[in-house]
Amino acid sequence: TNAWSDNRLRRFNKDFMFGVATSAYQVEGAWNVDGKGESMWDRYLHTRPDVIADGRNGDVASDSYHQYKRDVEMLRELGVDHYRFSISWPRVLPTGFTNIKNEKGLEYYDNLINELLKYNIEPMVTLYHFDLPQTLQQLGGWASPLVVQWFEDYAKVLFERYGDRVKYWITINQPSFCFEGYGGIMAPALNSKGIGDYMCLKHVLLAHATAYRLYEREYKKKYKGSVGISLSLNYGFGFDNKTENEEAAEIYRDFTIGMYMNPIWSKYGDFPKTVKSRVLKKSKEQGYEMSRLPTLSPEEIKLLKGSADFLGVNHYTSVLVKPQKTEKFEVPSFEDDIGVEISQSVHWPQSKSSWLKSSPFGIYRLYMYINQKYDYPQTFITEQGWSSEPGLNDRTRVDYLREYLVAVLFAIEDGAQIMGYTVWSLMDNVEWVAGTSERFGLYEVDFESEEKTRTARLSALVYKRIIQKRIVEKDWEPDNWKISIT
Ligand code: PNW
């Protein structure tokens, strides 16, 4: 389908918020500066440099710890309404606990927030974007139930310190990091497929809900902010409309969308029935006494239900789903529990990342799906982006953003509740184990330069124009590629 197939002019209303995102480990650098503690990503990439595609880790990254004023200048050049960034837990609490509060680290975020507010840019703060203090990882990290309390204590420090100025909070970025960290090559890279990943997931959800309740109880009246969680929600289509493929896609969606949304947004809470029954059945067959998927108690179900003022949607791509036939997965594993084979169409344009292809109708379908299942939840698109080669002429990113933004307009027209849109990312950064081999920035970063010089790409100019005009113009081209504050 062609996103441009009708000629009606749709526009974003004036209070729709446009922004860009980054995360602490990926941009800040200064990994051991001014009293910052070690994170599990510091430890992981220092001990396993071989896993990084181009060897570049987050020690210096885009050096935003020192360049934040330039970052805010770029935000002003773009004319964004908000900036989504994350706080590094070990930068503010080097031991992971609240016994030592690192004043220098806390001041860094004070400075960034104040600089944003000076120019009327709304800060949107993520409490956790993958960089757990290494001290806590050693004590079990997200697989330990104790992390729920540790996270609440950490959240309290941030709500106390920044609550007067920050109105949009995101507790956790993508609970699905559990599957990559306990069954893949993301930190802590502990090989515990089908077990550790589910334990992690339970505690991540409870940590989120506990932080949400803390804000609700102690800060909401005073500060009137809202608290959400960002989920990685790609859409799974049936490979074609054969019944078995449609059924496989429904199971896939239960495991990758319902898994996170059901506990918070459904009427009865808890994990989806299909997920619970499939993992239980497989676990029994495999000789386990009980399900590898931990249960949620009635109290936990209650704590989780309704524990978000908004859903943060991180949406990059879509997949095509068939029942598992030829592929063999590790046993036990999340993949084996789902029991489907996924692929992407050869017709979808390919980015620099193997997993990321452009399929703009996917975000429209995702919204129709969650609206029907969860009754039109309030959402904020907290990440969407495209990876390219280095270079300023990022035509493929321009195409991607335009087509997805048109799809977002279609979704809004059909009732989706979307408060804003956030491009991943403001600038090139350390793309986890891909290092700097995949570039997601509207701004290019010259990682060879002392200052980590930032230069606007074509997409930065196009996004600026979209923000100004509140419409998506298919054919607009800038006169020149200079960007300035207007
Ligand atoms: C996001 N997928 O993760 C993360 O939040 C960012 O830190 C990261 O830089 C960005 O995407 C680009 O990778 C995702 O498989 C990882 O669809 C994988 C997927 C989606 C999001």
From TrEMBL:
Recorded GO MF terms: beta-glucosidase activity
Name this polypeptide is given: Myrosinase 1
Summary of subunit composition and partner proteins: Homodimer.
Family to which this protein belongs: Belongs to the glycosyl hydrolase 1 family.
Domain of life: Eukaryota
GO biological process: carbohydrate metabolic process
Alphabetic keyword roster: Glycoprotein, Glycosidase, Hydrolase, Signal
Pfam families given in the database record: Glyco_hydro_1
Organism of derivation: Pieris macdunnoughi
InterPro entries in UniProt: GH, GH_1_N_CS, Glyco_hydro_1
